[in-house]
Specification:
By secondary structure, the protein is α+β, with helices and mostly antiparallel strands. It contains 2 helices and 2 strands.
């Protein structure tokens, strides 16, 4: 899609050893969706507002990351 060029997605991860047996993984994510007009993103985007859209996207991406990390942890512990 032509608008996909305007989307930005950045991730960074920090790995922190805990007690020599565990590792804490901190994941930071930034997502940007830029459009000239809110309607290009969604018909009701202007009415709903940037904060509400951002909050809901954060919930969704956060849930996907948690699921990914849970699966990765299970695979690592099974190995």
């Amino acid at each position: 899609a032509p608008n996909e060029k305007q989307n930005l997605l950045r991730y960074s991860a920090e790995f922190e050893p805990i007690n020599g047996e565990r590792t804490r993984v901190r994941v930071v994510q930034d997502v940007e969706l830029r459009r000239e007009n809110a309607k290009e993103l969604h018909t009701f985007a202007g009415w709903i507002g940037e904060k509400r859209i951002s909050d809901e996207m954060q919930k969704g991406v956060g849930a996907m990351m948690r699921k990914f990390l849970q699966k990765a942890q299970a695979k690592l512990e099974a190995a």
